[in-house]
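Hey everyone, long-time lurker, first post.

I ran two proteins through the pipeline my lab uses and got sequence/structure pairs for each. Pasting them in order. The first:
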Amino acid sequence: MLELNAQHIHMHQAAADKPAALALLAEVLVADGLVAPGYLDGLRAREAQGSTFLGQGIAIPHGTPETRDQVFTTGVRLLHFPGGVDWGNGQQVYLAIGIAARSDEHLRLLQLLTRALGEGDLSEALQKVHSPEAIIDLLQGAPQELALDGELVALGVAADDFDELAWQGVKLLKRAQCVEPGFNAGLALSQALPLGDGLWWLSSEQSVQSPGLAFVTPINSLVHQGQPLNGLFVLASLGEAHRAMLERLCNLLIEGRGQELSQATSSRVVLEALGGEVPADWPSAQVPLANPHGLHARPAKVLTEIAQAFDGDIRVRLAGSEIAGVSVKSLSKLLAMGAQCSQVLEFIAEPSIAGDALPALVRAVEEGLGEEVEPLPEPGQVMENAGASLAAQPDQKTVEHAALRVGERVMAIAASPGIAIGPVLVRKPQVIDYPKHGESPAVELQRLDAALDRVFSEIGVLIEESQVASIRDIFTTHQAMLRDPALREEVQVRLQKGLSAEAAWVEEIENAAQQQESLHDKLLAERAADLRDVGRRVLACLTGIEAEQAPDEPYILVMDEVAPSDVATLNCQRVAGILTAGGGATSHSAIIARALGIPAIVGAGPGVLGLAPNTLLLLDGERGELLVAPSDAQLADARSERAEREERKRLANERRMEPAITRDGHPVEIAANIGAAGETADAVSLGAEGIGLLRTELVFMNHSQAPDQGTQEAEYRRVLEALEGRPLVVRTLDVGGDKPLPYWPMPAEENPFLGVRGIRLSLQRPDILETQLRALLASADGRPLRIMFPMVGNIDEWRTAKAMVDRLRAELPVADLQVGIMIEIPSAALIASVLAREVDFFSIGTNDLTQYTLAIDRGHPTLSGQADGLHPAVLRLIDMTVEAAHAQGKWVGVCGELAADALAVPMLVGLGVDELSVSARSIALVKARVRELDFSACQRLARQALLLPGAHEVRAFVGEHC
């Protein structure tokens, strides 16, 4: 483990610039026997990837994963530059902490520096410091204080025995972020210490993040080991932080005043007795936070600047909290609050400045703290009937205003191909009434646990019965939500306030869903929908509400959004089609419809919810077209076209195992996109000539920590074995702010799609990337393996990742290996001619390439229909990529949704794309489509399409000519 040592600090150094400082640092590391001379190249390469400037005059230069073999011994050396060194972007470094580490030991050092960088600025002190010991003191910061405030005191909690009361205390420490999950295991319950007056003491040093003391009393007197149990202290011990509090407690017990604690009716009494943090009895003011991203860096900075203009203490906390609050003048403390949109802030100020400070702060928050904000709902409007929130729908006025008329034609988002005809069934979530208050916390918790267990079992049955992997994956996620300990703990807190199981569950589900939605992230918004769906199932179970029964005749189901739980009532023999008001091509509605083979259109707008019962609809899921009350002639044409499509599908299925070759003899490889090993055999049986995209995220998402090499290797071997010699193209882990992993925390980003994701993130955690690459190489065993890196935007990212593969390949040789990149970012397409000289292949991810080129989020509720990959701008980037690759003798695949679009296939073939990778269900039809084409004709049409003004014109042009 890296530690700070005064002997390793070189005082009063000087360097003209950053390169000179790096050279001096490398010289010291080499001289002390920590690294070889080549480590300097690693220091330079790391700075080229991104500055190591940490803040407040400190930088932490270290090597890259490729130069770890230059490290002899793990260690650090510190160079003090009182005159400062320009580290770029105007950042001055006064202390460079050079790290030599063979793995990720430097992350521990970052944790040690966190306290020092929390509040204030060390820059000036680092310039003036004269001794190594003084630098150590600055970096280690002040000793941590014991956390003891109103949030760590719970009086009159429901507990039947000592163990349960102890668990309540641990829960408070977890909520205060004092301890990690392993803290429970370190508590020796059998060795609890009786203090007298019915008070007991427990403590542990295991899994402690920061020192804290929780105090809990039971609602009814208990007995433990034959003695009264009226109160319990649970200490998260770290250093000597608790010494002063313990002295006060001992004095209080010696004076015979223990009953002041065990019989306390307010947390203030406890805190005053123990010297805890007591909220000041100062003037206060409350204001809801309307900023959509919550109190992030920019608005928090505005708040601190306002507070710093007043000469006095100003604190802030979430309304309803019993803590003293944090200083509004501290940016780091404000950010640590994690205040979300719609939460109410309570400002508290010294009486001498309150008259001016509080109105200024409230006004600034109301005006958005420098950001554009929308008015929040009136108080009580959101949670007045939280059950309705779980069943959120467009309001009735919006629906009535947008109601569709007879004969109206609506163009929406094509979600699942096929033509459906039938009467409409508009299904709206049931409004469930329930009592606000419960019998007792213990009884209500028992009811809730019973409901959670029952719903978990019901979902388990659905998983077993489902034949579709994507639906099973959704339900598996729902089961995980039901077993989320943090969610249950938060519900318990609400039960302690007297709420019923229904009210506590609904409020917490809605609170969690709103927090995820406030991040304005597509994937998290889908998770919010999942949370509400799980919430509805449990609420229905608690109240005994049965699911609505569907009619027996074939119908078109109309909903705001089809939730996974609705799948249980979907009879594929009777549901002719699905039509939703909301959602996009990647929403659960679309995924479920495609998986079940039901024609579907999504994102049609709120007007569809106002359709009269039994209105006849004609729905074309291939074109994204809806016709209300069609004429007899329109119905006849539709039925005829449907019959033609069915026959086409039947014929295509008969020839699904044959290759896709155009009429004039040009072959196109057709592969499958899959997300799990279990899907491989089905893909092969449906005609896949290989796997063109294996998404590896699922193997990472299915574990509570990063899967080891053996776990991953087993998954990849299953795919390769099922392919029986066919090629496998694997995309390395593609996560980021938009697709986070629970064990890989990432800071919220303004726009995660333009932030740290894909290869950018993997290069920040080379240990995880190296483990995945090792697993892939080890699994090959002579079979054709293709590895591609996602979201590559520049050649340095490619070269860094490729160098890792080359290094590992020397250790784990693979006979048939190709390494390439995904073309998803326009910058990569624009330098394809440079990249093509080094990569083995390109795979074009048209979903992301389209949204980045057109600046339209493909999941946007109103704009996603315009995110069309047949836009000439996107086609030109594909053309550039193919031309560059073929000039170097490299192949190009397309693995986005565009590859399965019947109108896009002629364009992609004409542009020279070598491989189309699609969902397994689409393979037969795509092969059939290729066989209809003439390659030479497609080439001419593609050249002409590049000159058209937009996607609509391209689609019309292709439809007319082929």
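...and the second, right after it:
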Amino acid sequence: MRNTKWMVLCLLIGFVMASAMMSTIPIYMNASLQRMLVKDLESFQTEYEIYPGSYNTSYGLKMDISGSEQQKAVENYNNKVEAKFKELGLPEKLDKKYISDEYLYVRSLAVSEGNPQARFTLGGMTDISDHISIKQGRMFTAGKRSDGVYECVATEKALKSTELAIDTVYEIADVFDDNKSIKIEIVGVFDVKDENDAYWAEGLDSQYTAVVFTDYDTMLGDCVDTGVVNITKAVHNYAVDYASMNMTDLNSTNEMIAKQKTYYGENSIGFSMPASDILKDYESRSSQLQLVLWLLQIPVILMIIFYLFMVSQLNVEQERNEIAVFKSRGASRLQIMGIYALESLVLGVLTVIIGPFAGLGLCKVLGASNGFLEFVNRRSLPVHMTIEAVAYAAIAVAVFFVTTMIPIFPATKTTIVEHKQSKAKKKKHALWEKVCLDFILVGGSVGWLYYYNKTQEKLVAEGVTDTTATVNPIMFVASTAFILGLGLFLIRIYPYIIRLLARIGRRVWSPAQYVSLTNIGRSSTGRERFLMLFLVLTVSLGVFFANTARALNRNAEESVAYEVGCDAVLTEQWYSSKIESAQQSTPQSASQAGSQQTADESDEEDTETTIQYVEPVFERFEKLAGVEDVTKVFRKDGVTISSNKMNVPRQQTKSDDEEKTRDDFLDQSVDTSSGKSSTSNVQLMTIVPSDFSKVCKFEDRLLPVQLNNYLNALAEYTPGVILSSSFKSYGLELGDTVECKWGGNESFEVTVLAFVDYWPGLSPYKEAKNGGYMDFAVMNYDYVNVQTSMEPYEVWFKLKDGASVQEFYDSIDEAGIKPLTLESASQQTIEKKNDPMLQGMNGALTLGFIIIMVMCIIGFLIYWILSIKSRTLQFGILRAMGMKFREIIMMIVYEQLLVSGVAIFAAIFIGGITSDLFVPLFQSIFDASQSVPPFAVIPERSDYLKLYAVIGVMLLTAFVVLGRLIKKIKISQALKLGED
């Protein structure tokens, strides 16, 4: 170990990287899910005004039991609840018990004839004094006073509802038995100390309207013992500190909650836990995220295995002479293996200690990732060390321990004589060349890719848009196998190319160039090929990871931009008057949300009813802060498009299944079509073409020609329509005339100008009422407005570059605009990028890229350092033959270019091909209906610049290290007697 300490250090770095990467899976997954869980629970609390961490139970007591039986029943109930809550293992924020008697009345008050007696509820709640503030009077004192009075407090609302007063002694009795009585005095009026306190999660005024509070222990003890107070209801609530929940036990927690619901039901105990549905949802999301993180690590794991195998093999090559000497002197294979196993074991122990903490540190950094190698200043992830992370690291060490031992096993069977003889023998072709492993890997990967794509196309064609269940781990293995296959093919043919170049230019090559070409051409089984394969794998995977991350983030941004259609969309309520015809008297509500309408609402309004709206002043929107352009967009669902040329497939109805009569068989009427000549499953959008072109956001690759060409056609021919491509399957062609109608409007004709697959803001996967997908139509706003009655439209905004969304929102409030809906593409993009799935994938891809590049640099340096050290004798011979020192340096530079340069260039090309073929498969991770527009691999220059920067640093570092190494080599002393 001491003789090759720098090689051992490289092995240790590989072990630590492997274990750190593996330990990040449970740490990062739990942390990202916990952060998202907390956000969802906070949103739940804001929306429903319910503390989501509540664990609420209640129990109703029988009315015909004695005081001691009541006390025992309450105690048993509290013990059951306490035991069940502890089973969950959730962090406790507070524990609250409450008892009440709802059947008490004030006997000491005079009641006029015909008026009911003053009824109220006496309640006791644990730790109430810590969560209230006294507004008038003072806090009650526990126990009975010397004058036999029990002190109480109440809210102002309770005093009004019970008509009781402060600082007055009242005699109270049971409604059903007024033979006995006790005295109480309300000594204080209180209010909640903190409105956001989980202690009052169920609400004070809503749940305790007519409750007068006394000490809990006093009520359960002394008051019940008097026989006047009878406990009718007991409540035992917990508040869970959901910000500190441990996501690792989520599955078992959900199972226990389900079992506890059954248990409480069997014991007549009421139970509710608002967060249970959210926790169930996160259980499935956790499984999906864990699967994706694992799959993303497959290429990195394979790369680390390759790296460790390479370093271990180079280490063995350096020590093969010593291993052969041990073998010749009688050491058994087991003893030799034990030496290296002990070395790897020491590294493994160090790795298990260091690796998980290195993974913890990586997770803290990756928690701020907003994209591939992009970091933002957001709150760090709530990461913490777990036993699971240590277990993952230990498993990784075990796997890589076996990997490092594989190259040692064949070396232990060679004696010193056999070792010397093998050095003189001609190297044979490697096994992978003989079995054509490169062709098998490439052919198998491409064949599997073809099969997988056909399967996915078939699923989508059958209407299955949610293909997340079809995520196949082989897709990640296949991409790595494809890169490996092309890399093996490269190193198979490269020596022959170099030999050909050496032969062609042998009369013009300089001595340094000729020696470089000869060395590389003869190393058909040497280290150069191994280095080239290593560089191809690392750099290609780096390109693949960069393009994968770019495609995922681009898809997230483009899907939001496509769905919203522009920077911001606003709808507001219009004032309307209703005009009804004699045939129908069902008006549309004036509060209809903008122009959006469901298919159900369209059916209800598809009558002779017309609603007249008053259009607000449009110029207000142009003056809002940060607005560059604005346009009107009218949208309507459930519009009917009809034509005699259309043949729309009919949905099966009840009449289709009814038994035919004799008249049906004798019917001679001609059925010219198997379908209908109209469809009402149409999304209509009307636009002002000139303004729409300035405001909308759209990717040109989604249409055959640029979007403005369609807008120009719609502007030049106003009675035109652009239809979704689905209308072509109905039999329509360009130039056909169709009729359009909805509600009480008269039908009007438009001419088909074009068919498109996509249009800003119109999803081709929007579901219709019959279960299919809705078609869409785009028309000219001014033309449609003349043909129909004006209806509320959407206002689409384009904001200036760098404009603040918050200032835009503030200006809307200042202008007195009260939007019904307001969508911002930038805010939705932020929300989408905060999704744990996308964050996890960005973090995993960034982590994988960094690890691969570190391995690339280390492996690159290892090869060239070993190459220079092993060729000291060759340098001495070349110097003795008259080659200048400068020419030796140039020879090394040429070899760098021919080996490293060509490998890196080929790797970038291979990585690009792999990305084009395999990155689109990542769309199966998401629902196809949410991947609009579809996945596209469009490399960005910034990603490649990052990659080039890493490669540049690697090459620069290599030249510096090699330059210092060469200077230290005493080439003039290399030729000496006995030199090996």
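Reply from user beta_strand_b:
Welcome! Quick read of the second one: The first strand starts at residue 54 and ends at 60. The radius of gyration is 39 Å.
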